[in-house]
Amino acid sequence: MKEENDVNPKSKPRALLELFAASTKLGLTSFGGPIAHLGYFHDEYVTRRKWIDERVYAELVALCQFLPGPASSQVGIGIGLIRAGLLGGVVAWIGFTLPSFLALTLFAFLLQGYPMDAAGWIHGLKIVAVAIVAHAIIGMGQKLTPDRNRVAIAVISATVTLSWQTAFSQVLLIVAAGLIGLLMYSKTASSDFSSLSVPVSRGTAALCLGLFASLWIALPLLRPFSNTGFLPLFDSFYRAGSLVFGGGHVVLPLLEREAVPAGWVTSEDFLAGYGAAQAVPGPLFTFAGYLGAMAFGFSGAVVATLAIFLPAFFMIIGALPFWSSLRSIPKVQGALMGINAAVVGILLAALYDPLWTTAILSPADFALAMILFVLIALWKWPPWIVVAASAAGGMMIS
């Protein structure tokens, strides 16, 4: 990118240090989920530091909303790529991810050996997860299912997800929804686009896309030869990171169906960790670190975190050079409209099972969930305060 964003090789170490400092600051202070993260990024990288302009930022956000994976983390990686090349992308990811990874891994160690069934505050964390996901569904539904056809896609997707719970059901749903969207919405797609230039060659991009596809195919084939150890863990979390559209909350059902049946965590441990993940800043995908630590200690936390974020790296590096031309194709935009509607349905199914069925066990639980929802949706309380309130409420109910 031959603009003011280029970094002279002699100043690259300094640029990397500045990038790490800025991204770590965001990792320590960015509460509120992916949409809030994008606001923090805009304030830090566009308004304050002026590392990229409004046009480039808008294009980058649009691309990351299209790709599977954690959108806010991919935006941060993309800004690192533009600022300091491939190493800049890695540094930006480490800074943004490390604080929440360490916090959730420590939380996992604190919970191990703890009598979960006797912990009222743990039950409160499960209840707040219901309120948070319900709020996410309403917000996503308003944007991604604005007409009756996409509402129908979402409802059918939720029904199929609840009725047919297999490892491939959600993949097939996403593919089917994309085909429906292609047929129904290709003619209504927008044609107003600007270009995006980044310092990544198409050869490097093609290599990353090839690695993404190769691992996606090879890991399930290799898994039967290693029923224990880190390979099944890496496969499960890599696949989850590869299939998530629509933001961090959608990874919940994917991870639950990988981690709980495999015996890595109990259902109670899973929901307690998911509730705790709402109390820390940074990407929700670091929930993988908690699950990996519960199953295999600190090494498991590192493996699970690397596995779930690796597809995001491959996809953002692989897609950036091709995005400007690809996103202008009406058929691609139409397919994305259908996929986004299916994502709302998948998340709606997750709200019922495992969240509602496990957390809402009494009228008092339902009352606490309503109060927490109001605090989040209407009073706009900071997430960490809401999580603390939920833990206290769970103790009072118990």
UniProtKB/TrEMBL annotation:
<keyword id="KW-0812">Transmembrane</keyword>
<feature type="transmembrane region" description="Helical">
    <location>
        <begin position="204"/>
        <end position="225"/>
    </location>
</feature>
<dbReference type="Pfam" id="PF02417">
    <property type="entry name" value="Chromate_transp"/>
</dbReference>
<feature type="transmembrane region" description="Helical">
    <location>
        <begin position="90"/>
        <end position="112"/>
    </location>
</feature>
<comment type="similarity">
    <text>Belongs to the chromate ion transporter (CHR) (TC 2.A.51) family.</text>
</comment>
<feature type="transmembrane region" description="Helical">
    <location>
        <begin position="290"/>
        <end position="323"/>
    </location>
</feature>
<keyword id="KW-1133">Transmembrane helix</keyword>
<feature type="transmembrane region" description="Helical">
    <location>
        <begin position="118"/>
        <end position="139"/>
    </location>
</feature>
<dbReference type="GO" id="GO:0005886">
    <property type="term" value="C:plasma membrane"/>
</dbReference>
<feature type="transmembrane region" description="Helical">
    <location>
        <begin position="335"/>
        <end position="352"/>
    </location>
</feature>
<keyword id="KW-1003">Cell membrane</keyword>
<dbReference type="GO" id="GO:0015109">
    <property type="term" value="F:chromate transmembrane transporter activity"/>
</dbReference>
<feature type="transmembrane region" description="Helical">
    <location>
        <begin position="358"/>
        <end position="379"/>
    </location>
</feature>
<keyword id="KW-0472">Membrane</keyword>
<protein>
    <submittedName>
        <fullName>Chromate transport protein ChrA</fullName>
    </submittedName>
</protein>
<dbReference type="InterPro" id="IPR014047">
    <property type="entry name" value="Chr_Tranpt_l_chain"/>
</dbReference>
<feature type="transmembrane region" description="Helical">
    <location>
        <begin position="151"/>
        <end position="184"/>
    </location>
</feature>
<dbReference type="InterPro" id="IPR003370">
    <property type="entry name" value="Chromate_transpt"/>
</dbReference>
